[in-house]
Amino acid sequence: MSKVRVAGFGVSLDGYSAGIEQSLENPLGKVGPEIFQWFFHTKTFRAMHGQAGGSVDVDESFASRAMENFGAFILGRNMFGPIRGPWLDDAWKGWWGANPPYHAPTFVLTHHARKPLVMEGGTTFYFATGGIHEALSRAKEAAGDKDVKIGGGVSTVRQYLRASLIDSLQFAFATVFLGQGEALFPGIDLPALGFSITERVTTPFATHVVLTKG
Amino acid sequence: MSKVRVAGFGVSLDGYSAGIEQSLENPLGKVGPEIFQWFFHTKTFRAMHGQAGGSVDVDESFASRAMENFGAFILGRNMFGPIRGPWLDDAWKGWWGANPPYHAPTFVLTHHARKPLVMEGGTTFYFATGGIHEALSRAKEAAGDKDVKIGGGVSTVRQYLRASLIDSLQFAFATVFLGQGEALFPGIDLPALGFSITERVTTPFATHVVLTKG
Fold first, then answer.
1. Mean pLDDT score of chain A
2. Which of A20, A23, A125, B201 is in the most buried spot, having the most CB atoms within 10 Å?
3. Which residues of A touch B171 (CB under 8 A)?
């Protein structure tokens, strides 16, 4: 059955986060290098950049699960780009170049309407102005039997968690302290939301933790 | 040289904390059992309860370091007891019974004066009404060449961190999500305060992380 999942979400030990898609072309400052160390050496990461090789290890198993079996994605607008307010033109097409890593319908939460944007490789960006519930409804319909990924950023993940709309969370806790950023957990009571830990593996790069609802 | 240290401080993956002294006789609800799993099986924990045996492993090495070489302790008032406001009498003598686990001068931060309280085993509770700087000054003088431990609770640790008065932090990150409690990290920028990770070891029970300033 189709699930709504957060996956490949990096978290520092002091609770600051970002999703792996943000590490591709997006200049995240120090966040990317520090919280995605577990990801860069994997086969999945290299394949996303058109490169062969890469590790086939525990980190890879979590990397591949973070990118596979998704029929649709939902992103917050700030994850899609740096522009705020109304879209002045169609020039901005995301951080990821002509062929984004989604390869599926991808719904961007925004207050400002814009025509769908068809990219190479199967990604179409739809601009969802009806709120998080409407965006999820459209994403589920687009995904069919596959899962819907809440790709980020932190604010979007927090909104879907508070609305109790997420089934599964796959985090990679990196042994770093960022000191500042967007905090994932304040006011988010995962046990009260019905989540419990169903997997935990530590590698030299991260502690991978999966939480499942119910 | 004498250091000011936090040690044996348990933290959940969603950032809620307590120090190991709180687990002794203090009914912490679910926090104790969940974030101190790494501690209960150790030789140090058993010795603190007058029992022989216990593990001599990586968890034990962090447990013993969390209790050794301290010449004085500082505790927040809520960690000392449940009474708020002025002391009505001298009946309350801490959570720990006649022989508390400190075995050294222990300064309790409070706004309300009270005579020192001499306990068995070398612990004397002093009630420090002059603020965190004065309490630390007294604790350093009492500790001599040994270290001063900021034992907790969370609010006390945060106050000393913000004032840039702590030299070393030894955390045990437990793979649990508490959902609520006292959050340790909001507004605390450890890199900006000069801390970097100097040790990291993962056991089946916790990821032990030491941060050192400077």
1. 92
2. A20
3. 13
Model confidence at A129: pLDDT above 80 = yes
- pLDDT over 60 (residue A138): yes
Homologous superfamily of domain range B4-213: Dihydrofolate Reductase, subunit A (3.40.430.10)
Average pLDDT over residues A187-198: 96
Which residues, at least 6 apart from A30, have a Cβ–Cβ distance to it below 8 Å? A178
Each residue's pLDDT tens digit, A149-169: 999 999 999 999 999 999 999
Cβ contact B190–A200 (<8 Å)? no
Q: Are B188 and A14 in contact (CB under 8 A)?
A: yes
Which of B178, B193, B209 comes nearest A13 by C-beta? B209
What's the 3-state SS for chain B? CCCEEEEEEEEECCCEEEEHHHHCCCCCCCHHHHHCHHHHCEHHHHHHCCCCCCECCHHHHHHHHHHCCEEEEEEEHHHHCCCCCCCCCCCCCCCCCCCCCCCCEEEEECCCCCCCEECHHHCEEEEECCCHHHHHHHHHHHHCCCEEEEEECHHHHHHHHHCCCCCEEEEEEECCCCCCCCECCCCCCCCCCCEEEEEEEECCCCEEEEEEEC
- Among chain B residues, CA nearest to A201: B204
Mean pLDDT, range A160-179, rounded to an integer = 96
- Hey, which residues does A19 pair with through a beta bridge? A9
**Within chain B, which residues score under 50 in pLDDT?**
none
How many Cβ pairs within 8 Å bridge chains A and B? 68
Q: Name the least confident of A17-21, A80-84, A156-160, B18-22.
A: B18-22
Q: Which CATH architecture has domain A4-83+99-213?
A: 3-Layer(aba) Sandwich (3.40)
| Residue ranges of domains in chain A | 4-83+99-213
pLDDT above 90 (res A122):
yes
What is the pLDDT averaged over residues A44-49? 88
Residue A108 corresponds to which tokens in the numbers above?
């961007």
Q: Do residue B177 and residue A192 have CB atoms under 8 angstroms apart?
A: no
Which of B13, B190, B197 is closest, CB to CB, to A179?
Answer: B190
